[in-house]
Amino acid sequence: MVDMILSIEYKKLIITFFAHLWVALLYGSFFSVMASEYDLPFIFGLFVQVGTVVLVTYVAYQEEVRRYYPFMKALGVNFLGFILWLGVAMTKIYILNIFALVVVLYAIRYKCSRCIEYKRFEIG
Amino acid sequence: MDELEKRLEVLFELEKYDELLKLAFENLHSSEESELLLYTYIIIAFMNTGEYKKALEFCQKSLGIYPEIAYILSLKAKIHMQLSELKEAKKSIEEALQLNANDAEYYLVESRIYFELSNFVEAKKSIDRALELDSTNLDYHIVNAMALYMLDGEKVAKEIIEEVLAKEPNNIKALDVKQNFFTYKLKEKKSILQSMLFLNPFDKESQKDLKFIHNYYRYIPALMSFTIVVSFIFHTNRLEFLYLESYLPFLYLALMLIGSNDWRFNIPFVAIMMGINTYYTNIPDGLELADYLAIAFISTILNFFMMAVFPFVIMWKNRLIKLIKGFRKWQK
């Protein structure tokens, strides 16, 4: 556990957090609104919102430490999230947002042509 | 033939390029067997003496006779790189790699060209190929670390440099990279620079950096005090300078941008300015000794805070520059 905490790259974590904060808040706030629609307590909605942000940041961080994460990809992910969110809003089947979030998470994990791995070699 | 080869080799090792060139020109057209070797020595001698135009001329001549020699093409790429003709350099090294795709050195040259072109993804791909072919050369690992650093893989890059230094503690390139990119403490930087100068006492860059650190410790307290005094005068007579107040954020921004060339230098000043401003918005009436001390305290705290935050500012600035460059390229 201590090793895991020590191995966290905080600089990257902060960058990742802010890079995906917009899309995470978009879906998180939507889920918390949905929770309040079902008459669930306020604190539950709050947890859902925070949970979404944590989930998105975690997935993005895992990706960031493994490979190069271009700035344009972060923009693309946020834009895709927004477009999907708009699409779901137009269909008015709001539960589809869960699938939209899954698509966004897969987009974060998508290996683009510039997403080169942080590969290292043993010194021979 | 053998004797000529040996003489050339000795002259090359002794760095006597004038004599080497004289000998090579004398024997250039004597036999077809040694012609390619002589051309190679001539090109390298001209490169080492900094006469790249002449080296390029002989490259063209030798390629006219031997068009399919990959080594000459790689030398041509290196010369173009030195002349900042990066497109031609890329073309030459691609031709060399088409002829011989199993030489790690060519991939290293290709990687360096991509570095110059600021295309770090392709630079990383090239150096990966070089390392797949030969992982014993420490230079390749250092270039790999640099590529990783440019692609935000700072942690892995640092580990690689540490490994290289564990293997070869006096590797001057690794020491240089470490002090430039992976050392944030000035005292540690200083000790690395000192050991670098011990290995190569005439390295001007290291001398300059060491002098900067020395001067930093020497003059910064005086400069900080001077800034406090100037700010004090400015704020005690602030009604006269009131029209300047709205420009202060721009001043901070300008200082930050100037500071990003060497961010350590401007932090204390920005901190002091911000400290005074923060203080004045809270207590606008008069300024006594206690207030003056409070300003110094706030400035010190802000200084440490900004020391931590400033690398992020630089990083985002670099990213923005990269984005603008990419946009311009796309426009073209």
Describe the structure.
The complex is a heterodimer of chains A (124) and B (332). Chain A has 124 residues and is mostly helical. Chain A has one domain (10-109). Chain A has helices spanning 2-6, 10-37, 42-66, 71-91, 96-109. Chain A is globular. Chain A starts with a helix and ends in a 15-residue tail after the last helix. Chain B has 332 residues and is mostly helical. Chain B is 81% helix and 0% strand. Chain B contains 16 helices and no strands. The model of chain B has no long low-confidence stretch (mean pLDDT 81). Chain A binds chain B through residues 9, 11-12, 14-15, 64-65, 68-69, 71, 114, 116, 118-124, and chain B through 121, 124-125, 128, 131-132, 134-136, 138, 141, 144, 148, 151-156, 159-160, 163-164, 167, 311-312, 315, 319, 322-323.
Shape of chain A: globular
DSSP E strands of chain B, number: 0
| Oligomerization | heterodimer
Structural class of chain B: mainly alpha
> Kindly, what is the distance between the CA atoms of the first and last residues of chain A, rounded to a whole number of angstroms?
32 Å
Strand content of chain A: under 5%
Radius of gyration of chain A: 17 Å
Largest sheet of chain B: none
Q: Which residues of chain A sit in consecutive blocks of at least 5 with pLDDT less than 50?
A: none
Shape of chain B: elongated
Order of helices and strands of chain B: HHHHHHHHHHHHHHHH
Largest interface: A-B, 19 and 30 residues
Helix content of chain B: over 70%
What number of domains of chain A?
1
Helical percentage of chain A: over 70%
Q: Would you count the extended β strands of chain A for me?
A: 0
Low-confidence stretches of chain B: none
Order of helices and strands of chain A: HHHHH
Name some characteristics of this structure:
heterodimer; A: 124 residues; 5 helices; 75% helix; B: 332 residues; mainly alpha; elongated
Task: Give me a quick take on this structure.
The complex is a heterodimer of chains A (124) and B (332). With 124 residues, chain A is mainly alpha-helical.
